[in-house]
Amino acid sequence: MKKTLFKSLVLGSIALVSCNGGDPYLRSLTIPFETIAPADSVNLEELGIYDVRRIEKFGDFFAIANASGSHYLSLVNAKTMECRHVFRRGRGPGEAVSPSSFHKVGNQGVVYDHTTGTLVALQIEDSFERNEAVLDTIRSFDPTKPFPPAYLTSLGDGVIAGNYLDPDVWYSYYSSDGTLTSSLPSFSYPETQGISADCAFSLMYSSLYASNDEQNRVCVASVLCPSISFSKMTDSGLEELKRIELAPPVIIRADNRSMFSKESTTSFQGISADEEFVSLLYSGKLISQKTSPANVCNHLVQYDWDGCPVHAYRLEKGISALCMEGNVLYGAVSCPESRLYIYELSK
């Protein structure tokens, strides 16, 4: 295994290719795809990391959210490749029962403990040095109100998340105390109208969220259908700037129930954003296919904050989680082995 990531990044061979096929999302894109190969990779299993959910980079450190295991986060020094596993799942100091929604806000790593309705900031370098989670509480939501759902992202003084109360909503804004103040409607596909509440909530919660550096814009993308929303926060609430809806999920209706068919395709599986771009990983694989996991993606599409696609890449090695640092893409995957790939984008 290579002992450092800070080596010369050599751009893999680039070829303009047509990879639209019959996929409605890929076919909708009017920009060409570039095929790129990784410049380097790291075997994460040698660091005790096996099931990556999300990855962020903070200076010389990677912070990796684990989908399973005793510790929610793994911190990796990118120069020395030393690793610390922190933020144990539990009820003790520096622990959380149900940590989720790890995301980056400025230079802070933010985690949501849905059990207590608390947002905390992880001090990355201090946590690495002490080999334990060093946490600062950002806010605790009002315990007399329903806490925002488990998956969210920060936006200004509040958060963006799904909506427990209304299955006809796609996403909502919650103020600093957890008060629901603004919502945007669910999808307009005829196929999703009148579906059962449990199916509607599943569709709602199967979403990815990311905000810009200034914390005044948000992008939301669906995991279950090729749909994307771009919004900004105004004094009167969320204002949707652009919505892309290209194909509905395949839904089976029987006995007054609705469920998602295994013949549905999965859509967006990873998201990362900065002040310039929103980067989305797209799968397009059938849930039922067996050749590779549906969450492993070989397509990366970057949008500006007005919702216009500006760059598109076909990745030689598929990934399911990503973060960006300038034009360098760090992508993680857990199958067939847990590995971090480093790509240099030609922008």
Describe the structure.
- This protein is mainly β and 347 residues long.
- The chain has one domain: Neuraminidase (6 Propeller), CATH 2.120.10.30.
- The chain contains three helices and 28 strands.
- The strands form seven sheets. Strands 1-2-25-24-23-22 form a six-stranded mixed sheet, with no helix packed on it. A four-stranded antiparallel sheet has the order 3-28-27-26, with no helix packed on it. The protein has a four-stranded antiparallel sheet with strand order 4-5-6-7, covered by helices on one side.
- The N terminus is likely disordered.
Task: Provide a short characterization of the protein structure.
The protein is 6% helix and 47% strand. By secondary structure, it is mostly beta strands.
Order of strands, main sheet, comes to 1-2-25-24-23-22
Low-confidence stretches: 1-19
Q: Please indicate the percent range of residues in DSSP E strands (runs of 2 or more).
A: over 45%
The top level CATH class name: Mainly Beta
CATH superfamily caption? TolB, C-terminal domain
* Helix content bin: under 10%
CATH architecture title: 6 Propeller
How would a crystallographer describe the biggest sheet? Answer: 6 strands, mixed
Query: What is the CATH topology assignment?
Result: Neuraminidase
Estimated structural class: mainly beta
What's the rounded overall pLDDT mean?
A: 91
**Count of discrete domains:** 1
Q: How many strands?
A: 28
Alpha-carbon Rg, integer: 20 Å
The coarse silhouette is: globular
Count of DSSP H/I helices: 3
Distance between the termini: 28 Å
